[in-house]
Amino acid sequence: MHRIQRQFCALLLIGIGALSAWPAHTLAGQTLDGRYDRFMEVHEQTRGQSTAERATAMSVAFDNGFAAALARDPASMDSQDLATLFNSANIAHAYSIQATHLQAMQRAFGELQARGLVEQRSFSDMHAALMASRQFEQASALEKEFPQWDVETAPTLAAASNSGKTALAVPASGTTVTRTPLDVDRGARVVVISHPLCHFSRNAMAAIEADPALSKAMARSLWLAPVDRKLNLQILQQWNREHPEHPMVIAFDRAEWPDFDSWSTPTFYFLQDGKLVSTVEGWPSEGNRDQLLRAAARVGL
């Protein structure tokens, strides 16, 4: 765990630490207290695992632990149990980005709204989940329903491509994004899971730009921001202005990248004709120059 903390930024799950810190007694209702406790035990037990491993574990724990609650009509549930179900589904979705977990959130949120129990935190979580699931129109509609609370404004999605591996192209200005196909299945490519808010990513870029050998090896690199609950378009726009040779795009859906186990930043995936050949993880204080050069040589870069 120390290695991961030292070399990586785990941007993917911003906000989950605060959620998981809620005492169970503040969430538990008449029947779901023990289920919530067991669900959060899995959350603690899986710390330090890869993105894919933790997503699977949290999905299974939620789907199994809350199966009976999910089968019920939300209108029949005690309000505290309803809130517990919503918050548990929110945590599961933040790890999995699965449509079923989004739907569980939406069903519970709808009933909370019908009872006048929506608070700023539950609104923000619902909006963030819609953003991560790329349901931008629904996120925008939610903003209009609750104008009293500020959140990141949902972007406008331009004409979309849904073929193969795709990303949201970051506009030079404004908030209109386009889902564009990515040409990473031909020849040698490097996909760098990265983000400007991660200082390890920034350090890696600085080292690459300052080193002719690294610059050559990384010439065909794709800098890919992970699926997150915020787009941070202005921050990405600034990165793209500062690094025009390595502009960053935003992953549309993790499921399009089944070979990528980790979405911590930075992670360097070296591909040959779309197949994963090697991985270089993190950016320690001494850098990863030799590892990157060896991995690049393996794919002919």
How is this structure best described in words?
The protein is of the alpha/beta class. It has two domains: 2-153, no CATH class; 166-298, 3-Layer(aba) Sandwich (Glutaredoxin). The chain is built from 14 helices and eight strands. The chain has an eight-stranded mixed sheet with strand order 1-3-2-6-5-4-7-8. Mean pLDDT is 91; it is low at 1-5 and 12-29. It comes from Pseudoxanthomonas mexicana. Keywords: Signal.
What topology emerges from the helices and strands here?
Layout: H1 2-7, H2 16-20, H3 24-27, H4 33-45, H5 51-65, H6 67-71, H7 79-96, H8 99-114, H9 120-132, H10 136-145, E1 156-157, E2 166-169, E3 176-181, E4 188-193, H11 199-210, H12 212-217, E5 221-225, H13 233-242, E6 248-251, E7 267-272, E8 275-281, H14 289-298
Parallel strand pairs: 1-3, 4-5, 5-6
Antiparallel strand pairs: 2-3, 2-6, 4-7, 7-8
Approximate shape:
globular
The string of secondary-structure elements, in order, is HHHHHHHHHHEEEEHHEHEEEH
- What share of the residues lie within helices? 40-55%
**Mean pLDDT across all amino acids:** 91
Euclidean distance between termini CA atoms: 32 Å
Helix count, DSSP H or I runs of 4 or more residues: 14
- Largest beta-sheet characterization: 8 strands, mixed
Which strand-content bin applies to the residues?
A: 5-15%
Radius of gyration: 20 Å
Instruction: Give the beta-strand count.
Output: 8
Put the structure in a nutshell.
This protein has helices at 2-7, 16-20, 24-27, 33-45, 51-65, 67-71, 79-96, 99-114, 120-132, 136-145, 199-210, 212-217, 233-242, 289-298, and strands at residues 156-157, 166-169, 176-181, 188-193, 221-225, 248-251, 267-272, 275-281.
